[in-house]
Amino acid sequence: MPQMTMVKAINDAMRVELKRDPNVMVFGEDVGTNGGVFRATDGLQKEFGEHRVLDTPLAESGIGGLAVGLAVQGFRPIAEIQFIGFTPEAFDSIAVQAPRMRYRSGGRYSAPIVFRTPFGAGVKAPELHADSLEAWLTKTPGIKVVCPSNPYDAKGLLISAIRDNDPVFFMEHLKLYFALKGEVPEGEYTVPIGKANVVREGSDITVITYGAMVHTAMKAAEQAEKERGTKVEVIDLRTLSPLDVETIVSSVEKTGRAIVLQEAPYSAGVAADVIALINEHAILKLEAPVKRVTPPDTHLAYQLIEDQWVPDAARVVKAINEVLDF
Amino acid sequence: MAKTKQRNMFGNAEVRLQPIEPFAVLSVEGKVVNKDAMPKLSDEQLRELMRRMVFTRVWDQRAVNLARQGRLGFYAPVSGQEATMIGSEFALNKDDFILPGYRDIPQLYWHGYPMYQAFLWSKGHIHGGQIPEDVHVLMPQIIIGAQYVQTSGVAMAFKQRGEKRVAITFTGDGGSSQGDFYEAMNFAGVYKLPAIFVVQNNGYAISTPFKKQTNAASIAQKGVAAGVRSIQVDGFDVLAVYQAVHDAAERARNGEGPTLIEAINYRLGPHSMSGDDPTRYRAKDEPSEYDEKEPLVRFRRYLESKGLWTEADENQVIEEAKQAVTDAIKKAESYEKMTVDQLIDAMYEVTPPHLEKQKAEFAKEGK
């Protein structure tokens, strides 16, 4: 099986779907000739032509509208927003128009669009390139939010997203683009949207997380086991909306303890929602309050203090111990 | 002297726009002023244009009353703008695609969207948005400008598939201030898309007059910046609007790209039936200035001069329209009640488990 970086796996997913379905299109700023600023679309224009893989003017709202218009005419657009911080410029299309298309038309039209965008701290990107803005969309009915943590999931989830008949906001962590390689099957396969993955089994505490924080959680789990023999279960959510309630709840019922780790600020995020679900479904099984490990409620501290801002394994281990010692 | 010299310093480097005048076929008196531009329409088609405008005026008056009685939800009156609405739709083919703003219900109706569904839409019933399969329109857009950027997408779909179809969209003078207005035209220009962007400049965006909306002399000139062919038409003149849209559609079908059309007209009524009071922002006698200019008067004069329209014709359409509205509101009001279930099922193709659970809880409460 070939080894691929995550960005290569994403590129491969689009190639597979462009080949399979003539209605799939890819567009955005610099995605054509240049192959995308991270080469996520490298070679696609050459292979599939300028009418299917196209450079757009520098205007995110225009990109979003183009996607919605093409989608109601039966195309399956993959619209790249060059960096997540540019998402607000296209917010009407992403958070309003696409998610409401099915409802507003009583099912006559849908908006099967994938809005792909890189995000994520740890690579010293400029301001407003890397913030974790997922909660803006996880609260929005009608759009799904997906965030892979490794090359295998990235390809399988992106193929699922492209085939989904509802809009999907697909978040690609910048730190994971080139950082690790993994085995990725050739050709088509899917990883289902809405299903979390237990990436490490354990019986003492569950760490629920997603994106690059999955790797931080794994590091922390190993450390906690080494230091105190703690058996940590780690759940990679993979899909942030809709959440996989069953996997979360059955793990917490088993371990009785949980922390939720996210790269987004503390309040009103995915972590808050996961904790609410645990309270609703498993509160009587809890041995201790569920804890959030997150950056503070600030904008992303880009560059100078970025590494202090993002949760690291040490903070996660500390939180694990606090919950165990409650 | 020095001042003049300085003023000319930039020569041809300075962009200067010529003043423009709206394209018209008929004068206010209903006389043909532009013989060469007269559209090639049969007498029956000319009568049909009048029939549709009268019908739409009666429908609008009835809808205003229904809204006052609380029998409609949101309603934006159309009186004064019939020539632009009817003339532009009449110039389209059945498979051309309309992306309307919320006021553009008449274009949808004459393109095939049933009136009772327009009433259901106004009331927030999900069936209102279920556009029949053979009707090529989107639902009325609420976010001013969103329909413009989407028009580029629809037009690109036609171009991709090599179809000779046109996407046409509508907004008001206020809409031309949105960034989406420019982004849409810029995209359509770059990709040479078969799109027609219509602005119904009715003088006011709710209460804000045109002169506070933009310092540009016209909205038409805004297309020039995007390299999009742009014209201004007399939006009270149904023949001028028809001709402008017909020509733009022909160019679009021939691969010549998009057109921006600014239609100068006037909204005789309020912005909407949700508490807008036009006496707060326009002079009391201002609407009466339009008694002469308004589209029905002008076209009636023209048709009467040609012996193509009589009082009996007019009365017949009025009765037809009244009956159509009565039937449509009756059908809308007796339509099966909407449920929370239907709303939940419309969120995704496959309702996810957490939402199924919420649905079951609402069902238990009998909602």
From TrEMBL, chain A:
Q: Which residues form a coiled coil?
A: none
Q: Which SUPFAM superfamilies match?
A: Thiamin diphosphate-binding fold (THDP-binding), TK C-terminal domain-like
Keyword Oxidoreductase set for record = yes
Per the record's keyword annotation, is Secreted included, yes or no?
Answer: no
| MF terms in GO | oxidoreductase activity
Please name the InterPro entries in this protein's record: THDP-binding, Transketo_C/PFOR_II, Transketolase-like_Pyr-bd, Transketolase_C
Q: Which cofactor does it need?
A: thiamine diphosphate
All copies of domain Transketolase-like pyrimidine-binding, residue ranges: 4-179
Q: Which domain of life is it from?
A: Bacteria
Keywords tagged on the record: Oxidoreductase, Pyruvate, Thiamine pyrophosphate
The entry's protein name is: Pyruvate dehydrogenase E1 component beta subunit
From TrEMBL, chain B:
Q: What is the lineage of its organism?
A: Bacteria, Bacillati, Bacillota, Bacilli, Bacillales
A GO molecular function assigned to this protein is: pyruvate dehydrogenase (acetyl-transferring) activity
| InterPro entries, A to Z | Alpha-ketoacid_DH_E1_comp, DH_E1, PdhA/BkdA, THDP-binding
Role of this protein: The pyruvate dehydrogenase complex catalyzes the overall conversion of pyruvate to acetyl-CoA and CO(2). It contains multiple copies of three enzymatic components: pyruvate dehydrogenase (E1), dihydrolipoamide acetyltransferase (E2) and lipoamide dehydrogenase (E3).
Which proteins does it associate with, and in what oligomeric form? Answer: Heterodimer of an alpha and a beta chain.
Q: What class of enzyme is it?
A: oxidoreductase
User: What are the entry keywords?
Assistant: Oxidoreductase, Pyruvate, Thiamine pyrophosphate
User: What name has this protein been given in UniProt?
Assistant: Pyruvate dehydrogenase E1 component subunit alpha
Source organism of the structure: Laceyella tengchongensis
Q: Which cofactor does it need?
A: thiamine diphosphate
